[in-house]
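Sharing in case it's useful to others searching the archive later.

Someone asked me privately for the predicted structure of Exostosin glycosyltransferase 1b, so I'm posting the question and my answer publicly. Question first, with the sequence:
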Amino acid sequence: MQAKKRYLIVLSAGACLALLFCLGGVRLPAAGRRSRHDRSRRSDQPWPHYSDPLHRFQPWDREDTEEFNLHTSPRQKKEANTSAYRGRRCRMDSCFDFSACHRNGFKVYVYPPQKGEKISESYQNILSSIEGSRFYTADPGQACLFVLSLDTLDRDQLSPQYVHNLKTKVQNLPLWNDGRNHLIFNLYSGTWPDYTEDLGFDIGQAMLAKASISADNFRPNFDVSIPLFSKEHPRTGGERGFLKYNSIPPFRKYMLVFKGKRYLTGIGSDTRNALYHVHNAEDVVLLTTCKHGKDWQKHKDARCDKDNAEYDKYDYKEMLHNSTFCLVPRGRRLGSFRFLEALQAACVPVVLSNGWELPFSEIIDWNRATVIGDERLLLQIPTTVRSIHPDKILSLRQQTQFLWEAYFSSVEKIVLTTLEIIQDRVLEHGSRSSLMWNSHPGGLFALPQYSAYQGDFPFYYATLGEGHTGNDLQRSIKPVSLPFFSQILVLWNCDKPLPAKQRWPATSVPVIVIEGENKVMSSRFVPYETIVTDAVLSLDEDTVLSTTEVDFAFTVWQSFPERIVGYPARSHFWDSNKERWGYTSKWTNDYSMVLTGAAFFHRYYHHLYTNYLPTTLKSMVDQLANCEDILMNFLVSAVTKLPPIKVTQKKQYKETMMGQSSRASRWADPDHFAQRQTCMNKFASWFGGMPLIHSQMRLDPVLFKDQVSILRKKYRDIERL
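And my answer, the predicted structure tokens:
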């Protein structure tokens, strides 16, 4: 029995060895008769090559190109890799000094321009955006982050914007410190034929804010991926998105479109050369042309003439605005201008650029606004986009509009988003959540210094599934006989001394008097610590409102906590003769502002007014002693993209007299009105456009003016005023 078991074991082992030998898993030693020459010749043979019909699922780089491998030595390849990102292992905890940031706050210093150095318009827009922001400091000793005045945007050696000898110039900067705490902006790197990501100088430990950066070279939570934008991209403001209304179902004339260059040779040519396989000239229109460059005819193929003729038949903007999806294939580099163009047009981007680190990927959830495809699966793209549910398409299009207007519509927003991302890393305890970045109004208007909890802001009640009830607002405002007031705050900006305590009227709630330190207009919007409620009722000294009016206005505000809700309304208009914005106080059915002399708004806007707006605008308000209410309306409308809300008021409300005094108020001064005209245009210039929105809505109490018994009406006294 034991002999039989041994026989089976030996037989099994022999069968296994024979199988391994047949499959090539075991190589028997060469016979003694094989010569040394035969063995050496066999060792020179290359390893067997197994062809893969699919391209690699990683971005093209210069070491992947045939020309690079043929003409570049291993030493040159090594030097190219190390020079591009010598600090590729850098992270915030290893290559960034937090001490200055914690000591002085997040301040950014821009090097003064060097004599004789040319700066492109795009880079000048970046520097101007930084210098006009609340982060800027002219004192390098106070700075947490440093930005070069040397133009690093275009590092293509064939470009006229290329700055020579940048390596030496950067190393000679007195504050360079191997790039530590420095931020370098770049849009184009490398040149023909490889278009690598080498900037041509050693960036050391500096952070990169770079377009078309690959995931392989991107250093997470250290670099920032920015979008590729053209030199025509506006510095401030920018156009709104093109989605004017939500069509149901959300389909357009075309399902999928693209119109752009086709590269006949070199990097980035594969995907665009294959687009004709998907083009059907009906709902999928993918057009390419090879007619670009000086010597395109030398390389033209059999399809060039046909493609060029088809290309000229279609208008690009008409396609863009009438398509549900827009293809965004890679070009010579990973990024493309098509990306931002599709976002603005509410055309859902279908990204085909394997290995591209999408712009602001650290904070933006691109799955909510784009379709990310695979270059190797191009033929499946039409089927994929057709399978997306109409509800999902509508959601994607709406998110494209939010992201465009929040982060990409101007150079200033791109720059500020970059700085805010870095600030969140520096101040981790006060960083924004993903919800803040990916929902209205966006991270630029949700300052984490105010609160880390979304419920403290006036924007997120619906998103969080919470209603803004009166429970926490019962501690809000309570003049003498109202049930909602918690305290009365008097800001004493008068040059006269404070009245004696016994001269103040008796109230059922505390009266807190704050003396303005500088006696300036902007002090009324300082976020005083004594303001502990969400709702703030702002009143001028000459405003007269009944308790019933205040009660009703507060009830309306509870339903619209993100807006200004109040009584005195004003409007703006465009004066075509003077080509400037005008201001009017005429009583009409149209308004765009509710003055803060008698209005409710959320206390967060105190924080935003003080910490978000630049010093230049607030200084202008203080010097004129005017326009602070207009500036607050500009700010709130810019944040919410909504008009204020006017509520019912008594017709006798006038602003021509100050209290019972016979002395005329500032509203009767013609210079006061002219100043407000000037303010309108100055504010519009800083915001990059006119954020105010006209409205014809007025909210009245239920049964207001209805022919029913007065006993059935809650706010019956309003009709008697």
